[in-house]
Amino acid sequence: MENLNRGFTEMHCMSGHSNFVSCVCIIPPSDLYPRGLIATGGNDHNICIFTVDNPAPLYVLKGHKNTVCSLSSGKFGTLLSGSWDTTAKVWLNDRCMMTLQGHTAAIWAVKILPEQGLMLTGSADKTIKLWKAGRCERTFTGHEDCVRGLAILSEMEFLSCANDASVRRWQISGECLQVYYGHTNYIYSISVFPQCKDFVTTGEDRSLRIWKQGECAQTIRLPAQSVWCCCVLDNGDIVVGASDGIIRVFTESLERTASAEEIQAFENELSQASIDPKTGDLGDINADDLPGREHLKDPGTRDGQTRLIKDNGKVEAYQWSVSEGRWIKIGDVVGSSGATQQTSGKVLFEGKEYDYVFTIDVNESGPSYKLPYNITDDPWLTAYNFLQKNDLNPMFLDQVAKFIMDNTKGQTLVNTTAQFSDPFTGAGRYVPGSSSGSNTVPAADPFTGAGRYVPGSTSNAVASVGKADLSTGMGAYQSAAAKTENIYFPKKEAVTFDQANPTQILGKLKELNGSASEEQKLTEDDLIILEKILFAICNTSAEAPTAQQLQTLWKAVNWPEDIVFPALDILRLSIRHPTVNENFCSEKDRVQFIILLLKFLNPKGKQANQLLALRALCNCFVSQAGQKFMMQQRDEIMTQAIELKSGSNKNVHIALATLTLNYAVCLHKVNNIEGKAQCLSVISTVMEVVQDLEAIFRLLVALGTLISDDTNAVQLAKSLGVDSQIKKYASVSEPTKVSECCRFVLNLL
């Protein structure tokens, strides 16, 4: 290499995957790894993380259930991965923090946006999703085929490219600003020039295209059908990787331009390429109508324009180069290669390529199901998986397996000449005509469900709402010591809702019992029992409630939704008692108990019930049995509870913040990073909508408790942009606890 200034030399060959590598990404330098790290995703479902100077992985990230085909790194050591398993995962160092679920087909493109906590995923379900703190905020629809690539233009705009041969420019707010056409086939990759809005794309039409001011300014043809990937270096050079296994670098800089011999060799290689007319790269071709060589005497009208001529019965393709003022041969157009979908093509289904995709009708009236199959698959196993996936009767196993064998008769694995397989779909070269066979409709948002909750009328049913005193040291506010000493977090004990007015509760219960239906009416004896329970709970000296008494309470809390709230209030107070806590949260009863409480957390339900169910959940944390129960059900409870953020009742918001705080207390003890990630996501999401300062204060204490003594949690909070979210509370004047606590949290961040 005498020209070291423009050459690249191989430094290392890194290995760690057991099958093909489908994506690579650089993790920027940090204090721990000043030279940065390299992440690779593979067909073996794993992600390998390498240091720059060691050929073996530093560590391997396991968790995806299928090929990992896209990676993007963010600030503070976060990594986002996309997989054929339809999920994306957020990793911090060597741990998975969050799984983003919502796409219905393979995720082929992921990007972390510059504004913290925002992430994008592009999928074979034709949609792009924007995620904030691990929740789907928005779905972008417009592409008519699988989304293959994403590129960030600014905090507010991004680009996407797809199998529909178009590029789209989007605003984060959801609007599509522009559609760019130029490619004649799948676009696999897109990359932006530094400091401007110009970009480059590569695809299945043998070309690299350079886009300036929204127009295709230059087309560079390559001697390979599939140009899988492109990236723009900091110096503006463009690197492309193609299906011939060669990486090529293109530059505008004269001192880095290749030697005349290298350029001649590239042109020769290009002119010898054979172009299959069936791919449509050159439009419809009728060889009989083509002009001869004299056609090349006229200059082209724009850079990259192609012209076909017929010379001695052979069709040749040329492209006009403005800079050189001449037509450059880009290949011979060959006759039909017979490469149709019937003979060697693959069929796309849910973003992956298969040899066959059958349509199976189980019964006349029911829906039909798609069954994808590769010749290398085992027909019985495929049939078994198909029945499992679609919840069909296993007795169809023989029938489906026989159907597969009958319809693939004589097909054995052929050794095709395609040596390079698509790093995204794992199949050989794409043959046009096999458009995506999947008609999947995007599923309902996994977090909000289909219909957003619209706050209803506020219920005044529970007037006597007491605020729990959040910390025992609250009287010490104004003292000088409180200014310097953090009395707020990490919080060690759960916060409970203890205020009670037994006479009022019983009065309401008796009044509503009058309107209950006959079979649900409580007897006089029942009412006496409930009075006993209330008395026992509110006076610690009295004896514990018996199992029989608790049966009566269970009967009452199963009243209809419009009259149940006094019974729920008794439950909220009772659950603090160790005996009651043990009874409801034990292994045998907890399933019914959780179903009951989650039912009341429905955003469309009555506000009084939402409030009391949240408070009952908060009070479950008082003893061991309840804590264990709450931690086991954490995912379900948090996912359901966060839906109540959209309401307008501040007491519901305070209870929701307290629930989060109590989880933070437990998570601080056990140091479960996945749980902390969910909790941080909830805090970040609820902070956005809640106005009440008491709720904000409790969320701040929860946040401080979660990140105390845990550098991973601090990094995760930063990557979610929580610090910028809470800054405004540092200047709250009343109550002072809000600004004080906020400052302590900001110090940790």
From TrEMBL:
Keywords: Cytoplasm, Developmental protein, Neurogenesis, Nucleus, Repeat, Synapse, WD repeat
Domain PFU intervals: 319-418
Hydrolase as UniProt keyword: no
WD repeats: 61-91, 100-132, 180-212
Listed CDD domains: WD40 (cd00200)
Location in the cell: Cytoplasm; Nucleus; Synapse
Gene3D superfamilies for the chain: Leucine-rich Repeat Variant (1.25.10.10), PFU (PLAA family ubiquitin binding), C-terminal domain (3.10.20.870), YVTN repeat-like/Quinoprotein amine dehydrogenase (2.130.10.10)
Annotated function: Plays a role in protein ubiquitination, sorting and degradation through its association with VCP. Involved in ubiquitin-mediated membrane proteins trafficking to late endosomes in an ESCRT-dependent manner, and hence plays a role in synaptic vesicle recycling. May play a role in macroautophagy, regulating for instance the clearance of damaged lysosomes. Plays a role in cerebellar Purkinje cell development.
One GO term (biological process): ubiquitin recycling
Organism from which the protein derives: Apteryx owenii (Little spotted kiwi)
GO molecular function, one term: phospholipase A2 activator activity
Protein name per its UniProtKB record: Phospholipase A-2-activating protein
SMART domains: WD40
Family indicated by similarity: Belongs to the WD repeat PLAP family.
Keyword Protein transport among record annotations: no
One Gene Ontology cellular component annotation held by this UniProt entry: synapse
Domain PUL: 487-748
One Pfam family this sequence matches: PFU
Domain of life: Eukaryota
